[in-house]
Design a protein that fits this description.
By secondary structure, this protein is α/β, with parallel strands linked by helices. About 25% of the residues lie in helices and about 30% in strands. It has six helices and 19 strands. The chain has helices at about 10-20, 55-65, 130-135, 150-160, 180-185, 280-300, and strands at about 1-5, 25-30, 45, 55, 70-75, 80-85, 90, 95-105, 110, 125-130, 140-145, 165-170, 190-195, 195-205, 210-215, 220-225, 230, 235, 265-270. The strands form five sheets. Strands 1, 2, 5, 6, 7, 8 and 19 form a seven-stranded mixed beta sheet that branches. The longest helix is centred in the last third of the chain and has 21 residues, at about 280-300. It is elongated. It starts with a strand and ends with a helix. The structure holds flavin-adenine dinucleotide (FAD). Its cofactor is FAD. It comes from Metabacillus endolithicus. Homodimer. This is Alkyl hydroperoxide reductase subunit F.
Amino acid sequence: PYDVLVVGGGPAGSSAAIYAARKGIRTGIVAERFGGQVLDTMSIENFISVKSTEGPKLAASLEEHVKEYGVDIMNLQRAKSIEKKDLFELELENGAILKSKSVIVSTGARWRNVGVPGEQEFKNKGVAYCPHCDGPLFEGKHVAVIGGGNSGIEAAIDLAGIVKHVTVLEFNPELKADEVLQNRLNSLPNVTVLKNVQTKEITGTDSVNGITYVERDTNEEKHVELQGVFVQIGLVPNTDWLEGTVERNRMGEIIVNKHGETTLPGLFAAGDCTDSAYNQIIISMGSGATAALGAFDYLIRN
Ligand code: FAD
């Protein structure tokens, strides 16, 4: 069996695996996609001590660093469930069972879907989630941004510099984004903000040709012709597979203490899948290190 089995190969998992392996204990890492969300990121300018880099480049460095140590890397493998018997038993989608004395979950998060007709159908045909990745595809076109929180308004400001026009749709009567962002947005000539509206449908034929929404105070249905829709309503933690094993909050984030411990002894968690206040690369790496040191402490006591 492993001493430490890390589930998830993003910044948190990579950091956890390196910290564990450096203690000279048997370490494995299972990842559906090594690199995680970093792979979908274009420019990174806040990873302290590296002035500027690109996501795929950072993901490659993460893997290279993990490979410096005798860590078993099991890439393109998805965890299905976990059970604690004498040892932890992690079942993979492919049916294999991996055993370990301790486990660090770092399965990150994914974009939240808005769940209206057309969203699935037109994914990558006008429906997008990553303005940094897909913004340039909509140069000179009209796009919508669903969501008026920080990520939605940041996306709208970013897109306004590339596309012809941006329409922001916010469900609540007011935007939730920070005031500095709202002020910046309001200073832009090619942005329309619709508040108190509910997105009803993303329409199209081969690709997106519009969005239908309802004005919540009048119940009136309206349609805007446009070519792209960016969904920016937050992240969902990848923790469904842990159902019934550890305590999670209302959002599905795993609750951890300052040692990275969950409610199940020997099971630790780190990064965007936890109830951490902020989701950033440097923060995920820090919590990955914390969870590995926590797991090491647990191993020497048990
Ligand atoms: P993730 O990066 O989500 O990694 C999760 C890992 O778990 C992946 O390997 C995934 O494949 C794996 N996994 C998931 N489910 C399973 C399963 N069931 N079984 C096995 N493996 C599984 N942060 C910054 O600091 N600066 C930025 O400039 C920045 N820009 C961003 C831009 C975009 C477009 C996005 C999406 C994010 C950005 N972030 C940025 C946030 C940053 O990428 C995340 O906070 C960070 O990647 C979280 O790391 P993590 O290891 O917790 O999770």
